[in-house]
TrEMBL record, chain A:
It comes from Telmatospirillum siberiense. GO terms for biological process: amino acid transport. It is found in: Cell inner membrane; Cell membrane. CDD domains: TM_PBP2 (cd06261). One of its GO terms (molecular function) is transmembrane transporter activity. This is Amino acid ABC transporter permease. Residues 156-350 form the ABC transmembrane type-1 domain. It comes from the Bacteria. GO terms for cellular component: ATP-binding cassette (ABC) transporter complex. InterPro entries: AA_ABC_transptr_permease_3TM, ArtM/GltK/GlnP/TcyL/YhdX-like, MetI-like, MetI-like_sf. The chain crosses the membrane at residues 34-52, 97-115, 122-148, 160-180, 201-219, 231-251, 281-306, 326-346. It is a multi-pass membrane protein.
TrEMBL record, chain B:
Residues 1-22 form the signal peptide. It comes from Telmatospirillum siberiense. Coiled coil: none annotated. One of its GO terms (biological process) is amino acid transport. Belongs to the bacterial solute-binding protein 3 family. The keyword Signal applies. CDD domains: PBP2_BztA. This is Amino acid ABC transporter substrate-binding protein.
Amino acid sequence: MAESSLLENPSANGWLRGPVDWARKNLFSSPANSLLTIVALWGLWLAVPPAIQWGLIKATWIGDPAACRAAGGACWGLVTEKYRLILFGIYPYDEQWRPFLAVVLFIVMLATAANPRFWRPWLGWVLVAGLVVVSVLMWGGILGLPLVTNDRWGGLPLTLILSIFGIVLSFPLAVVLALGRRSQLPAVRAWCVVYIELWRGVPLISVLFMASIMFPLFMPEGVTIDKLLRAQLGIILFTAAYLAEIVRGGLQAIPRGQYEAADSIGLTYWQKMRLVILPQALRLVIPPLVGQFITTFKDTSLVIIIGLYDLLSSTKVALSDPQWRAFYVEGYVVAALIYFVFSYVMSQYSQYLERRLSAGARRR
Amino acid sequence: MKSIFSLCLATVLLGIAGTAEAGQTFDSVKSRGQVVCGVHTGLGGFGAPDQKGNWAGLDVDVCRAVAAAMFGDSTKVRYVPLSAQQRLPALQSGEVDLLSRNTTWTLTREASNGLLFAAVDFYDGQGFLVAKKLGVKSARELNGATVCVQTGTTTELNLSDFARANKIDIKPVTIESFEEAASAFISGRCDAMTSDGSQLAAIRANQTPVPDDYVILPERISKEPLATAVRQGDDQWFNLVKWSFQAMIDAEERGVSSANVDAQLKSSDPNIQRLLGVTPGMGKSLGVDEKWAYSIIKQVGNYGESYDRNVGKDSKLKLERGLNDLWNKGGLMYAMPIR
C-alpha cells in the first residue's frame, strides 16, 4: 500500500513537469538523499551489467559443458538437460507427467482457495477431492497407474507437499495452542506453555535430526515409520509452536470489551472465540502469519540433511554429475528463482488480503 | 518418575537388543523380497541418480550385486539416500540392510559403532592437484603454498597433520563447499587443491580448461578404503555381502565378464565351474541359489566392468585403476578363493 502510493503519485505529477524536475524532487531533494541516490546507482552499476553480461549475453543456452567453457558465460544448458531431475527428483522418468499434473493441481487449488469469491462451504470438499486426486497421482497403484512409493518422490512436488501440509495442518493446532495458553485452566495452560517453549527452543534442523536419526534407534529392528511422514510431522509440530505465539499476539490485541460483550450476550466459550474474537484477532496478525508461512516454505529445504529430495536437494543431485559440477551457480540460481516466485506470490497475496479484510475498518 | 525412567531405558535396550539377533537381517531381506541399501545422496560415479532418476555408481553396483545373489534379480533394491550424519545410525537402527556409501573403514566404526565392513570397493587417498606451470614434483615441495580445502572434513585435518609432520608451511584456504573450493583453485586463488584422489581426478578431467596443464602429485597423505558395511549380529548376511563382492573380483581375475558368462558356463576350469555354480555347493553354503555369482556377473558385471563403467575409462570421471587394479596388475584387489 505505502510503496505504491509513493511511486504512483509523485511520478504522476512529476512527469508532467519533466523528468529533471521529478528527479530533483524525489532523488536529490537533500544532500543526504543525493548521496543515497548516488550510492544506490553506483551499486546497481556494479551489479547489474556484469550479471546481464554473464547471465544473458555471454550465456550458452543449449549445449555441453565444453561449449559453455568456451563462451565463458552462464551455462543454461545445465537446465535444459537436467530440468526434469531438478523439478521432479528421482520420480520414475516415464511417470513424471504425474507429479507435473499434481503441481498444476496444487496451484489451481491454491488459486481457488485464495479467491474470496469461492469462500463457500463447498470449497472444503473441493479441496479434499483435489487432495485425493493428487495422492492418487503421486502414489498410483490403482486405475492402471504403477505404484510409486514415496521414497521416490522429489523436487517441486515434494517441496509443495511438505510446505502446504505443514502450513495447513499446523494452523488449527496453533490456534488451539494459543487459546490454551490464555486458558483459565492451569493444567491446559501449563501444557501449552511447555509445548510452545519446548518446540521454539530447538532449531528445525535438530527436530529433523531427531525425527530421522534418533527416533529409529528407539524402534525395534525392521519397524520403521516412513521417513517423509516423520519429516512432515516434525515440520507441522515445529511450525505450530511459532504460529501459536503469533495467534496469541492477535488475541492479546483484542480489547477486553469485546470479550465482555460476547459474554454478556450469553455466548459459550467456543462461540465467543469463533464468532467474535478469532475473526478479529487473525485479521490483525496476517502479516506475521504469512511471514511464518514463507519461512516454513523455505525451511522445507532443510530436509536435504535427512536425504529427502526436495527442490534444493534434487538441484544438488543434478549438480553431482561430474561433467556439470562446475556450473553449480546456474543450478542454484534456478532453484532460487522458483523459491522466489512462490514466496513473492504469497507475500503479495497477504497484502491483498489485508487490504480486503480491513476495507470495513478503513471506511469508518 | 523412576518407573518412567526405567520404561525409557527398557525401550532403548529393547531397541538395541533387537538389532543383535542372529540371522534376522538375512531372513527379513529374504521375506521382504528386496534389499534396502543406504547410498550417497549424490556423488557422481559412486552413487547418484542419473538423468532418469535411476541409481548408478560403483557403490550402487554393490547393492545390485547383493540383490542379484539373493534374488537372481539386481533390480530388487530399494535405495535410501543418506547424508553423512545419517548413514551410521540408519544402519544401526535397521533402516537399511547394508551401507554402500563412500564410507571409510576405520577401527572405531567397527569396534564401537557396532558395524562390520564387508568389502572395500574403492581404495582412495587424499592427494594434491597443482598446475603444471608451478613446477612442483612432490607434495613436500609445497612449502609456502596456498592450498584450497573444504572446511569441516577430515581432509582439512589431514592437511595440517601432513604439514606438521613434514615441517613445511602450508597456508590452507578453507572453503565451505566442495564445488566452490574447486572453482577457487581453478581461478587461481590457491596454488594447490587437496581432496580425495578420485575427486581430484574428476576436477582435473571436467573442470579445468585444459586437463593436461594440471597434475596430481604422487603422494597420498591419507588412506581412505571406502567399504560396504553391515550391522553386527548376522553373520550369514555379512557373508553374503562379502562374497557377492568377492565374486565380482574373482570373475575379473578369471576373465569372466557379463559378455562371456554364458559361454563360460561350459568352461573346463574347475574354479570357474565352482564360481558359476556348474559345480554346486557354493550357493548352498551361502544360503542362496547356486546361480548367485552367475546372476551377479550377468546383470552387474565383474569388478573391472563396474569400475570402467562408473568411474573408469568409460565414465566421465576417467580414473586410473591404480590401487584398485587386480593384485597381479599392481593393485590391491585380491579375491579370496571361492571353494
